[in-house]
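ARCHIVE CARD
CATEGORY: sequence design from structure
SOURCE FIELD: tokenized fold
FIELD CONTENT:
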């Protein structure tokens, strides 16, 4: 496969762009695979890539019901950060951020990762103290973090509502290395990288059943026939419960909720950072894309749903938050609006673990953290699949942690999935 570099770009510019290979193949399934990964989203593709590159497992298939990256991978607001505090989460998300920082070079594909800083607004002394504790923990464990006073914040982000806001702004907690990336580019980069390693990406093959025999999984039945595999891994985001039931289990400790997002018409450069606030039952985040659109979102819909479509009450709620925080965009037109499905766990942290079936593996429960976690999710999930034991960083992210009383509740919201933002 042709590598992307300046010489090849120049050469193909002179030859009518006829010298490029396909970014990835569209193969027919093999007779049997060492590993079948269900879900060709960011986590599934990253897992396949690291299985091949880091562990030498190249007889791998990624099975996707639609087109590659056509599910939740393209339905998020692309924020990347590692401002987590609790053991397990702290190391995991810092690993993910470190992988993001070299991902374009790693994949030989521009994922458009922009380290423009993640700014969390603070509205009370209690919020400032809580942020200080979190960000000091980050700094003491090898990450970056800053607390900005109001004067510094006004200088860096002048367009916020500092004078008449319902919740007065006192300052901000900032992670300078954080930012955002292009979701489609990440999916395409991992797909191309996995394909170059020999992984088969099987699109338009919806999994309809997970076959079991003598206490083990033997493969998956799809809309286009049976695919045999020695190991099966599930990485299907908000549809985890559906696949879990196909495997013959009852329920997972997760709920599926919708998360809606929005983009405005293009504007001239206005906001250089990712800005977030959450106070008084309001939650809002916003950044500006390379095309100029203001990309923003808020809380999940509190009712459970698998529907990937929005609704007007959330449009109003998020628009009110946007105008409250940045009155200058009050007359900007909304360009489009979409929804993804989130698998919300009982404590707000994910599962990366083996299941009661020895050769079935689970990657689920990502709540709001799925996009930013993609590189580390693939890294640690592939390690688990290849070696049949968890890395110490993810040893606590198991299905039985609630039975053991080992709760990883980053937000401190209690056992209510819809409250973990």
């Amino acid at each position: 496969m042709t590598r992307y570099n300046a010489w090849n770009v120049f050469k193909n510019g002179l030859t009518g762009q006829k010298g490029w290979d396909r970014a990835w193949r569209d193969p027919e399934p093999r007779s049997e695979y060492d590993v079948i990964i269900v879900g060709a989203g960011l986590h599934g593709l990253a897992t396949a890539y690291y299985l091949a590159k880091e562990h030498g497992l190249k007889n791998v298939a990624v099975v996707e019901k639609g087109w590659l990256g056509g599910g939740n991978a393209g339905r998020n607001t692309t924020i990347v950060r590692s401002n987590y505090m609790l053991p397990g989460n702290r190391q995991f998300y810092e690993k993910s951020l470190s992988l993001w920082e070299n991902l374009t070079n790693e994949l030989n594909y521009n994922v458009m990762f922009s380290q423009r800083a993640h700014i969390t607004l603070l509205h009370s002394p209690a919020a400032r103290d809580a942020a200080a504790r979190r960000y000091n923990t980050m700094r003491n464990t090898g990450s970056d973090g800053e607390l900005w006073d109001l004067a510094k914040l006004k200088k860096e982000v002048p367009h916020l509502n500092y004078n008449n806001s319902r919740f007065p702004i006192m300052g901000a907690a900032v992670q300078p290395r954080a930012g955002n990336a292009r979701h489609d580019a990440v999916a395409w980069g991992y797909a191309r990288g996995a394909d170059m390693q020999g992984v088969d990406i099987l699109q338009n093959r919806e999994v309809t059943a997970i076959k079991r025999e003598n206490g083990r999984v033997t493969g998956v039945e799809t809309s286009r026939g049976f695919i045999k595999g020695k190991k099966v891994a599930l990485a299907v985001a908000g549809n985890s419960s559906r696949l879990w039931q196909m495997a013959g289990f009852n329920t997972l400790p997760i709920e599926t909720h919708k998360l809606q997002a929005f983009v405005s018409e293009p504007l001239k450069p206005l906001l250089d950072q990712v800005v977030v606030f959450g106070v008084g039952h309001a939650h809002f985040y916003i950044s500006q894309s390379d095309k100029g659109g203001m990309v923003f979102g808020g809380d999940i819909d509190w009712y459970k749903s698998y529907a990937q479509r929005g609704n007007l009450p959330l449009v109003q709620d998020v628009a009110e938050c946007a105008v409250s925080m940045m009155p200058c965009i009050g007359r900007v037109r909304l360009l489009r609006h979409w929804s993804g499905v989130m698998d919300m766990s009982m404590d707000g942290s994910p599962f990366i673990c083996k299941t009661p079936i020895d050769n079935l593996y689970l990657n689920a429960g990502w709540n709001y953290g799925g996009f930013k976690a993609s590189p580390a999710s693939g890294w640690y999930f592939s390690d688990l699949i290849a070696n049949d034991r968890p890395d110490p960083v993810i040893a606590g992210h198991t299905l039985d942690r609630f039975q053991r009383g080992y709760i990883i509740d980053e937000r401190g919201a209690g056992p209510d999935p819809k409250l973990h933002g």
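CARD ANNOTATION: The first strand starts at residue 33 and ends at 38. Residues 370-387 form the longest helix (18 residues).
SHELF: design records, drawer C
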